[in-house]
Specification:
This protein has 311 residues and is an alpha/beta fold. The chain has 15 helices and 10 strands. It folds into 2 domains: 230 residues, 3-Layer(aba) Sandwich (Malonyl-Coenzyme A Acyl Carrier Protein, domain 2), CATH 3.40.366.10; 67 residues, Alpha-Beta Plaits (2-Layer Sandwich), CATH 3.30.70.250. The longest helix is centred in the first third of the chain and has 23 residues.
Length: 311
């Protein structure tokens, strides 16, 4: 069994998508449709920067999605690949869930782009800049991370945001609490604790205003049952019902991304092959979580050609 998986924030870089767009009309069509849906020259920003503008959450989220869907469209158009025939499940890390749902035809491309633009803006606006922070705890598992967050909170909001793999967990919350967690983390057994270069405390209770905004937007969005089930971030379990997915996408804004558990659940459910589309971030997490899984990252035309030999 096979799952197509889609990366989240942090997998963007100036120049992303340019080579595949130069090589394929199918990719160019994706980037043009996203530009049209957003009423901005997002693809030009992806190609030329500046990097600081691309990193803005409201730009990075639709850009990462567009890049992933462009890779998929090239596979579909030029490789005659049909997702429902080659994948049994889809999954995505945080915003990657929207890419996964677009890939599985639960959301159309324009709707996905607009939802992610709104999601990025709402997440940034939820907490004033400087009041929230996130930190990666390296060499810490979920149990250690929860102990670190509990010890550092001291009455402030501090939560586990991403359980990425057995040795990488991210905490998120009030800036002062995250700062307190850094020395505490080393004392409680983490190898390193590193502040992340993000502008808001994603996947924490502080994101509730953004969750409310997404609840309203998703209530009015045309979201259909996906062609194949989605392994959801907040449950680490497959789901195919459109209304349930809608609810889980709202919960995901404030909830923990259970990526490690999702990988283990896919493996336990019979998945043997994973294909990461549009990034090279998730494959490493997969290998550290379930080394026996075969996981390939597909970004370039050469990657696509190699994947077509394997499918």
């Amino acid at each position: 069994m096979r799952a197509f998986i889609f990366p989240g924030q942090g997998s963007h870089a100036v120049g992303m998508g340019k080579a595949i767009a130069d090589a394929s009309p199918a990719a160019r069509e994706v980037f043009q449709e996203v530009d049209d849906a957003l009423g901005q020259h997002l693809f030009r920003l992806m190609c030329e920067g500046p990097g600081a503008d691309l990193t803005l959450t409201e730009n990075a989220q639709p850009a990462i999605m567009a890049n992933a869907i462009a890779v998929l469209r090239v596979l579909e158009r030029e490789g005659n690949v049909r997702l429902a025939e080659k994948a049994d499940f889809v999954a995505g890390h945080s915003l990657g869930e929207y890419s996964a749902l677009c890939a599985a035809d639960a959301l159309d491309l324009s709707t996905t782009a607009r939802l992610l633009k709104l999601r990025g803006r709402a997440m940034q606006a939820a907490v004033p800049v400087g009041e929230g922070a996130m930190a990666a705890l390296l060499g810490a598992d979920l149990v250690k991370a929860r102990a670190i967050a509990d010890a550092a909170a001291q009455g402030d909001v501090l939560a586990v945001a991403n359980d990425n793999d057995p040795g990488q967990v991210v905490i998120s919350g009030v800036h002062a609490a995250v700062e307190r967690a850094l020395p505490i983390a080393k004392g409680l057994g983490a190898k390193r604790a590193v502040l992340l270069p993000v502008s808001a405390p994603f996947h924490s209770p502080l994101m509730q205003p953004a969750a409310d905004a997404m609840a309203e937007a998703l209530a009015n969005a045309d979201l259909r049952a996906p062609l194949v089930p989605l392994y959801a971030n907040v449950t680490a379990a497959p789901v195919a019902d459109a209304d349930t997915i809608r609810t889980l996408l709202v919960e995901q804004v404030t909830g923990m991304v259970r990526w490690r558990e999702s990988v283990l659940a896919m493996h336990a459910g019979g998945v043997t092959h994973l294909v990461e589309l549009g990034g090279k971030v998730l494959a490493g997490m997969v290998k550290r979580t379930a080394p026996e899984l075969d996981c390939v990252s597909v970004v370039s035309m050469a990657d696509i050609e190699e994947l077509l030999k394997r499918l």
